[in-house]
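Take a look at my tokenised protein here and describe the backbone shape.
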Amino acid sequence: MRTWLAGLGAWSALALITAVQNYVFLDWAGQPIDAWTALWRELVMFGGWALLTPPIALAALRIHHRAGLAYALHAPLIVAAAFAHGLMMIGSRYVLPVDRELPPFGDQLRAMIGRTFVLDVVFYAAIVFVALAVTWARAYRRLSRAREEALRAQLQPHFLFNALHAVSSLIDTEPAAARRAIVRLSDLLRATLEVERATVTLAEELALLELYLDIQRLRFHDRLTVTIDVPAELRRAEVPPLSLQPLVENAIRHGIGTRPEPGTIAIAARRIGERVAISVADDGAGLAGAPAERVGLGTTRERLAALGGTLALSPRDGGGTVATIELPHGGAA
């Protein structure tokens, strides 16, 4: 319904613009007409196409689904549309006469179609193009949502397995910490399942990440230090949900989990032109000691690509690894 209302608004706007243009031009040419007459003519002209838009659009979609020789059906439909529009234009003269003397109806119809047929073809083609474009855009959005849901469904079991692994490591040695970790995991899963949008703000993503970090802090105690440097104006940037967690998980596994000494993970965001860069850096063994990319990073890379984003891994100065996400700034100011 909103699409048809938008179409009606577009035709009405064209009628108003054309009426003003004709009113000014005819006055300038020394053939003035009253404003109502100018507006009525264009309302009839474009209003007729507004009425024809739904059946033309529906017919175009049916033809498109059949493809092949079915496209030839547009030829008789163009003629039918031009004939129907001509009838509306002429019929309006009898409803609210504009001309003082009207020639025979058949003469009027032939003259009308002959004078406006090229314009009728243009309008018909425009309706078909817009109808197909809107349909393709909707299909693309549905496909993008389905792909995002599939990738998220692939990521969540991986994320849950690793979170449970972190909790299980505490059960024998620190049962009190394990109980607290289970509570944190419950909060994290609840918050994750409540997110149904394809993107969340960076502030919301950091809040989810903080729940995950609480579990890891119970596991590593003072061996894990996390710093977050994200300016307030960038916290409105849009990112896929659970896009930072795999990067932090990777940094913990390969940067801290493989050694007895403490380690630091630094999360930062900065604006680069029209994009936002979010980095997760660790001071661990670096890329040389890391295995091949697994589900978490691979899935995150695909989800970012769907939004025009990238994920890059690079060595950190002084040792360690930096994972950097770049995305269009979205909600960032």
